[in-house]
Amino acid sequence: MLENENWSMHDPITFAFDIADTSALYQFGMHFRYTDTFPWQDLFLFMQTTLPDGRLSQDTLHCFLFGPDGKPLGKGHRVKELEIGYSLLRFPMPGHYSLRFTQGMRAEKIRGIASIGISLKKTESVTQ
To answer: Is the model's pTM score more than 0.70?
Structure first.
């Protein structure tokens, strides 16, 4: 949960998890809780991944919270909830991973974001 539904560019949100099965595919998803006080249609995030061997990887994520008509894409009343299936991942090595998210909206603080979560769901292994 973000205090007062405000997210400062200096306050990263971090998640940590362990991966044992490197042959499996994992569905990576993002979960957003937000309000209509969020001033834009979409949200940019910077994601930094720390691999078990200490290497870093960075990516920029672009997520739409409102449709072109201005209506929220999530469900709920005052606080909307939206899940976005982002991609299928295969992890290169077993061990401890961490994901660090910072908002990339070019504003010191953004309002209207209550919380952000992630999901990793193991899918059936695919042979290539």
So the answer is: yes
| Angstrom distance (rounded) from CA 96 to CA 18 | 4
Return the closest-CA partner of residue 105 out of 56, 72, 62: 62
**How far, CA to CA in Å, does 92 sit from each of 20, 28, 66, 120?**
10, 15, 34, 15
Residue 51 has, within 13 A of its CA and on its CB side, a CA count of 11
Per-residue pLDDT tens digits for 16-28: 999 999 999 999 9
Look up residue 108 and give its two tokens: 């010191």
- Number of Cα atoms under 13 Å in the Cβ half of residue 30: 24
> Are the CB atoms for 33 and 115 separated by under 8 Å?
yes
Closest CA to 44 of 113, 84, 103: 103
